[in-house]
Amino acid sequence: MKKATVVPSMILAGLLLPAGAEARPDTRSMTCNQLQAFIKKNGAVVMNTGPRTYNRFVYHRGFCLYSETVGTAWVDASDGECRLRECKPPRINRNDGRFRPGFDQSRSG
Q1: In terms of CB atoms within 10 Å, which of 19, 86, 102, 106 comes out highest?
Q2: Regarding beta strands 69-77 and 80-88, do their DSSP bridges make them parallel or antiparallel, or are they unpaired?
Q3: What's this model's pTM, rounded to 2 decimal places?
């Protein structure tokens, strides 16, 4: 009798527990064109950029928070450096302390 209830319980637990975590894609294993196409297809993705580093890249500003802007990120790709888009935090007006959504001129590229 015990055996009959243990097996279905194990099967049910296997179905309810999440599968192993998917590995993040690595920018260094794709060409620049592949990276840009992958981001365009998914809209926003978190990718490894190094052995212990990662970043979130977006296709356009619609994937950022309202107060964020889109900035440029240069990453290593299998065929050299690649320019991608990432969300940037809002600029702070140092005079009144309020944020100002908009492009950060100091980091243009």
Answers
A1: 86
A2: antiparallel
A3: 0.66
